[in-house]
Design a protein that fits this description.
The chain is of the alpha+beta class. It has two domains: 3-66 and 203-236, no CATH class; 72-195, no CATH class. Helix content is 26%, strand content 33%. The protein has helices at 3-27, 201-236, and strands spanning 37-46, 55-65, 72-74, 81-84, 89-93, 96-100, 106-107, 113-114, 120-121, 138-140, 145-148, 151-155, 159-161, 167-171, 174-177, 181-183, 188-191, 193-195. The strands form seven sheets. The protein has a five-stranded antiparallel β-sheet, with no helix packed on it. It starts with a helix and ends with a helix.
Length: 238
Amino acid sequence: MDNAIYATLTRQSGLMREMQAVANNIANVSTNGFRKEGVIFSEHVAALGRGEPSLSMADALGRVVNLAQGPLSQTGGTFDFAIEGDGFFLIETPQGQQLTRAGSFTPSPEGELTTLEGFRLLDAGGAPVFVPADARGITLSQDGTLSAEGRPLAEIGLFMPADPNGLVHAGGTRFAAEAGVEPLEDGAMLQGFLEESNVDPVSEIARMIEVQRAYEMGQTFLDREDERIRAVISALSR
């Protein structure tokens, strides 16, 4: 196969991955706590031999998570918490501890605060956050202290990945930190608010159009190359 076709195929594969990332961003434009993702393109150059031009291949296996703050919407919910600035909530999942910015929690029958998926919220020390069934006047201070009628119940912690580049999308609004997590000392939380998705639908749709046009150009090139090769084979076989 011609080197130009190899190079174009690797580019097409990367554009397809980027299209999938953009489509996922658009699908989650209304998902609280969602963080948009992008694709990292890299170039691999190989020498073909003395006197021969080098061959360049595109690679788009890397993903990057945009950690920009999303808009805050007021809900008035007792267990709706939003993070203002940096940081993530730490939750316990079957795959281990994970991070999320989605702050909509609800007490379980046992009194533990859980996400909508049923994963337990963890405090600053990594223990489940427990709220007694008879607790009244639940308030959350900016430093994460959860109280009932002025009596402290727990201190909700905020965390950051030890390696920001090691943040991996684990599903939904959850992320796994490959290098572990570190406590965030100066984080701020708000009660009765939820953070919306940080996806800008207008820019994502514009990017989708750009990627689609680039993909179509690559496909046109491949079709023409296929026609050229068929014509050469047909002429040689006469």
